[in-house]
Amino acid sequence: MVFVRNDDLLPGMCLARDIHYFDNASRSSAVLKAGQKLTDVQITQLNGSKIDGAYIDTVRSEVRVISSINQEIRDEAISNIQSLADNFIDGGKGVQQSDIDAIGETAQQLIDGLSSQKDILINIADIKMYDDYTYHHSLSVAIMSIAIGIELGFPTAMLNELGLAGLLHDIGKVAIPIEIINKPGRLTDEEFEVVKLHPVQAAAHLKERNLVNENIYRGIVGHHEKMNGTGYPNHLKGNEIHPYAKIIAVADVYDALTSNRPYRNPSPPNEVIELIMGSVDTHFDERIVNAFLRKVAPFPTGSKVKLSNGEEAYVMKNYPDQPLRPLVAVVGADRTYDLSWDLNCLNIVITELLEENKHQKLINM
Ligand SMILES: [Fe+2]
């Protein structure tokens, strides 16, 4: 049993004790009995009442991963990116203003959704369940980039530019032969030279047609630059790299390495986060990595994880400053570990993400 504050209650959590509360909507007292699994409606009622939280039976709870993005908006985003890409590739008519307008609207919808959920950590797991990598990758990167921009206090106009750059950053890849993009094993030097063209190809096409401004252009072109100047295409260093490009770079690497690709199995989120943290200053901008770590939950609430002591557990709550050390409830035992704050748990780490979106539920944006 664990006490969970109102803000952290999730549908599917099972009450360990009765709750007596005053329901503001019906102006009457109400009771929820121990053993009941909470629903959205009940959680809303509890949020409107004066109680602080509820005792939750961690053994019988079936918490679900909450999506940070609405399915309809995701589908529309993917279809907009796809039509733009179709116009971009050889034989297409070239990207049109109407394509950019549609993508701009998508970016705005993502911003509206993410801004209204300021305190929610972005659950990346739920936007990673598709096969069609490039388009879904573009969407994941845009969502993470906007979340980082919000965390950095960007005004709406900048978030919109950043969202557009995120959605468009890899469009150049659709012009690269699929055998190279999906090649299992190492690319030859020649093949890598072809891959390296993708940021410039897309951005130049859009700029020539006056479809993007200088900021968006630099955001797209610079997303493979590194802080120490070893990136491509222009070997820019430090602040020569546009802030949008620096943000997209972090989101890009996180999403690429945690995704399933023909040539590589996905790496565990904790390993990728450690890799990103270890590449601060050489590869990534520290301020941006810190903002990223405050916004992205590698082990979303509701996911099942394996612990270093051999036990399996459900993630009950994430702490923005400690993305790798959430509050977890041991599967089949009446025991929780607060990996962030409990000194007795210092030697326990999460070693594996076992199930990330089995009980997926969407929330409205
Ligand atoms: Fe790229």
CATH architectural category of the largest domain? Orthogonal Bundle
Give every kind of bound small molecule, once each.
fe (ii) ion
Name the beta content range.
5-15%
Fraction of residues in H or I helices: 25-40%
Write the H/E string, N to C.
EEEEHEHHEHHHHHHHHHEEEEEE
Oligomerization state: single chain
Task: Provide the number of structural domains.
Answer: 3
Describe the 3D structure.
It is a single chain. This protein is globular. The chain is built from 12 helices and 12 strands. It is an alpha+beta fold. A hairpin with a 5-residue loop joins strand 10 and strand 11. The longest helix has 19 residues, at 97-115. It starts with a strand and ends in a 10-residue tail after the last strand. The chain has helices at 40-48, 71-88, 97-115, 133-151, 156-168, 178-181, 189-195, 198-208, 214-221, 243-258, 269-278, 286-295; strands spanning 2-5, 14-15, 19-23, 28-32, 53-57, 122-123, 296-297, 304-307, 312-317, 327-330, 336-338, 350-355. 39% of the residues lie in helices and 13% in strands. The protein folds into 3 domains: 2-57, Molybdopterin biosynthesis moea protein, domain 2; 71-297, Orthogonal Bundle (Hypothetical protein af1432), CATH 1.10.3210; 304-355. The strands form 4 sheets. It has a 5-stranded antiparallel beta sheet with strand order 11-10-9-8-12, with no helix packed on it. Strands 1-5-2 form a 3-stranded antiparallel beta sheet, with no helix packed on it. The protein has a two-stranded antiparallel ribbon with strand order 3-4. Bound molecules: fe (ii) ion. Residues 169-170, 198-199, 223-224, 252 line the site of fe (ii) ion (FE2). Fe (ii) ion binds at residues 169-170, 198-199, 223-224, 252.
